[in-house]
Amino acid sequence: MKKVLIATEKPFAAVAVEGIEKILKEAGYEVALLEKYSDPADFQRAVAGVDALIVRSDKVTKGIVDAAEKLQIVVRAGAGYDNLDLAACTGKNIVAMNTPGQNSNAVAELAVGMMIYMARNGMTPGTGSELKGKKLGIHAYGNVGKLVAALGKGFGMEIHAFDPFVDAETLAKDGVIPVDDPKTLYRTCHYVSLHIPANETTKKSVGYDLISSMPKGGVLINTARKEVIDEDGLLKALMERSDLKYAADVAPDGLSKMEASVGLRIFATSKKIGAETAEANINAGLAAARQIVAFFEKGDRQFQVNK
Ligand code: 3PG
Q1: Which atom belonging to ligand 1 lies closest to the Cα atom of 272?
Q2: Got the DSSP string for 247-299?
């Protein structure tokens, strides 16, 4: 009997866990659950003997992969798979997958919520501003970026987007103004919503030059990954320009120092909450379970990311 471990330091909603278990048990698999663990050693112990693994942002390191001697497939129930050591997986012929698009709506709604929060001075008294009529820049037009663009349009914003992997025609069809480079995007847009993945190319790629080039009152929203921000550059830009703001679902390492320096112009959640909705948990969790069953029963590798 195949054994599947759901290892989530940040647990799925109970209703999602029930759904995942149902799919896996109906396929005849045994399911184990490890939630809210604080010691990676607990995770390492739990993977011994499992054939498949479902995780969220949990770090699947070489140590985990080595301890999971029977592991054939790991599915990151979510979009970003920077938490998976892909080389270690590939080295052991373990298929690594994500569930693209399944939790995007939750993240997109949060990005827009953060835009309003910043426009209204962190919901404090005083004169704020409206999103209507402002230019919104989408930095990477993937599943989340596309939804943020559509929501922004609903608010009467003018949408611009930069994405080297999406052609101008596709953007134009969605009523989005294509932009050739990040420089132009940041220089043009009052709001920029970041949706780039964290990898060797993108790490620290958004820093002083881009942020300080934003128009008066510029707001940068980051529901992607903290690693893509050059924090020194961000702080420098916020210190130099008292009109700029930054909101993130991924607190910068230097958050307390930044808050002390720039006050309400910076906001960050205490833990990543972008995908923390029951709907997103159900969509991503059930997709992960189905992908595991499809892999074992039919050899389906559609969402493999370590090809
Ligand atoms: C993702 O990459 O899917 C999101 O950042 C959500 O991550 P989470 O599952 O850790 O909340």
Answers
A1: 11
A2: EESS--TTHHHHHHHHGGGEEE-SS--TT-SHHHHHHHHHHHHHHHHHHHHH-
Picking from 174, 187, 103, 175, the residue whose alpha carbon sits closest to that of residue 137 is 187
**Is residue 103 lining ligand 1, measured as CB closer than 6 Å?**
yes
Q: Whose Cα sits closest to atom 9 in ligand 1?
A: 56
Mark whether 51 and 191 lie in a shared domain: no
**Does 57 contact ligand 1 (Cβ within 6 A)?**
yes
Q: Model confidence over 196-251: pLDDT tens digits?
A: 999 999 999 999 999 999 999 999 999 999 999 999 999 999 999 999 999 999 89
Query: Do residues 122 and 250 both lie within one domain?
Result: yes
Pocket test for ligand 1, best of 272, 276, 277 (most atoms within 8 A of CB): 272
Is there a domain that residue 307 lies in? no
Beta carbons of 272 and 250 less than 8 angstroms apart: yes
User: Could you report the per-residue pLDDT of 116-128, keeping only the tens digit for each?
Assistant: 999 999 999 999 9
Number of structural domains, the chain?
A: 2
Q: Tell whether 116 is covered by a domain.
A: yes
